[in-house]
Amino acid sequence: MPSQHQSNTPQPTPSHVHDYSQVADEELVVLTDDSTNTEREKSAEKAHQREETEQREREREAERKAKHEEAKRRKAEEERKKAAEEEAERQRQRASAERAQARRDEAAQRLTGAVYDVNTAQKVPGASVVVTMTRRAPCTRCIASLTAGQCEPGQGKGKEKATETEEADDKREVGGEDKPATPLKGPSGAGVHTRWAEWERERQLQAMERQAEAHETAALAFERMAEAAERMAVAAERTADEWALYCAWAEWAEMRRREDAREARMAELERSSGGWKRPQSEAEDKNEEVDKGAEGDNEEEEDIRGEKEGGEEQEGGGEQAMEE
Question: Compositional bias (Basic and acidic residues) spans (predicted)?
């Protein structure tokens, strides 16, 4: 009977509805909508955590790649910079070697053309030996030791025959004593031609430097003079324009002054002479009277003559007043 057999399954309530479709045995745990929702939430949370973990992994991988690329870029930039510095250093060394070679070539050329010998007819200023210029090759040690050290006597092809001799010309010098030998004046003894050539080269280089400085100074002075001349030309043009404007204004002012003075004199003459008219109006009146004078009476002619004489007198007085 149903009343005798009681089930352990909880009875549904109006506020809590259960789904028993998956229940296989009464002893098992009853699955409800709440438990199903909890499992779904757990699954969704696990999936979300898995996605977050994957996203973090992807971000870390991207950051790792970016750092690797940045390190590679920095390394490549450092290598390029190092290569550029090495190339610049090689260029500097090459330029220095070229300059040194040019100096050596110039020194060799000068030494080839300027080798001094003793016991000949020309005396070096300030030295107690008599030397002259000959054309022969210099010693190899002279070429190699121009910048550091001096030549030793008796070495190379063009070895120096340097011997100090006292001659009669020394007695005729002022003071009667030999001057001390200095490197700048070509000392007697070993290595005379080397030191003398080096001093000559230094002197010429200094002269060339002074000449270059003088040229630069002259060029700068010419540039400044050109700028000053240009400014003066602009100022002269502006002054000419201003002077032309002033002359035009002065001419206009003088013309206005003369017109005002003439009008003032005319007004003064009209006030002083009463019915005096200007010469042009008188000529017009006279022409009108001649046209109207058909009768030709003597009285009218006399009147006309009187008017003419009076007009001439008035005109003469007006001219005299204008001249005054």
Answer: 37-106, 157-180, 258-271, 279-295
